Amino acid sequence: MSKPLTSTVIGLGAMGWGAAVSLLRAGLPTRGVDIRPDVLARFDAEGGKAFASPADAVADADVVFVYVVNAAQAEAVLFGDNGAVTTARPGTIFANCVTVAPSAAIAIARRLEAAGMVALDTPVSGGAVRAAAGEITIMASGPSAAFDAIAPAIEAISARVFRLGEEVGTAARVKMINQLLAGVHMATAAEAITLAARLGIDLKTMHEVISASAGNSWMFENRGIHIVDGDYATHSAVDIFVKDLGIVRDEAAAFGFPTVITEAALSLFQEASAAGMGREDDAMLAKMLADKVGMPAPGRAPEKDKAS
């Protein structure tokens, strides 16, 4: 029998954690890297091997999945002190799952290739629940032979894989368009639900109606229900869309393309971040809009909102 594919997952946040435990569930030896001791302890309890340093976790890995927050963090865990590239074997496959600007995805891939590694562009979508179930969507570009070589790992973490060609950066461009829509839809959902609350419409009924109608979006149906239920616990932070919509704006500007709707949504996320909500749930846009007209956040009674 051939040796099972060995994977390393750098970054055990919501999405990276889901990937790592899905790999373990598939019977693939998996190393997890994170800076948080409690997360490493949890991963060790799941049967994985936990490491605080990327350099310590990749020496015999066949594939390294990178699940950090942004391009700067990706560069640090790959090329910085104790970065993965310092100890990875030549020819190790690196799958960059971070949502970054296409230009950054290409630059990171070129640095990996210059170091003798194989680079794949693999941004993901689907949220923490799908990640934990091994059912994310992967937008993938890069060498076909590398994807074929890590097929068991890809199958373990995903429900759908869109192979978008051999050119690194193509997948990042597609993910950028996805984030444009997701961010705009989230901002619109917050505005629509808050307006409905202002008009005295029953929010649960409204959500059910819209979810079955032409105005629906995945963000409205999946994330909007948190607003309807008054659930403002952090599932996906405001600052994620500050980053992602900023990428859309900047990359589009480089091509001379206007992004009027993107910038309107981005301004709401930026306003929420500036008000101290950056690490809070993106549903907090609804609370911010409600505050503007002196009403409780949707889904919350006045006394509950005042006590929060």
From TrEMBL:
Domain 3-hydroxyisobutyrate dehydrogenase-like NAD-binding stretches: 169-288
Stored PANTHER family: 3-HYDROXYISOBUTYRATE DEHYDROGENASE-LIKE 1, MITOCHONDRIAL-RELATED, L-THREONATE DEHYDROGENASE
The organism named in the record is Hartmannibacter diazotrophicus
Q: Supply the EC number(s).
A: 1.1.1.411
Q: Name one GO molecular function term.
A: NADP binding
Q: Which family does it belong to?
A: Belongs to the HIBADH-related family. L-threonate dehydrogenase subfamily.
The protein here is known as L-threonate dehydrogenase
Q: Which Gene3D superfamilies match?
A: N-(1-d-carboxylethyl)-l-norvaline Dehydrogenase, domain 2, NAD(P)-binding Rossmann-like Domain
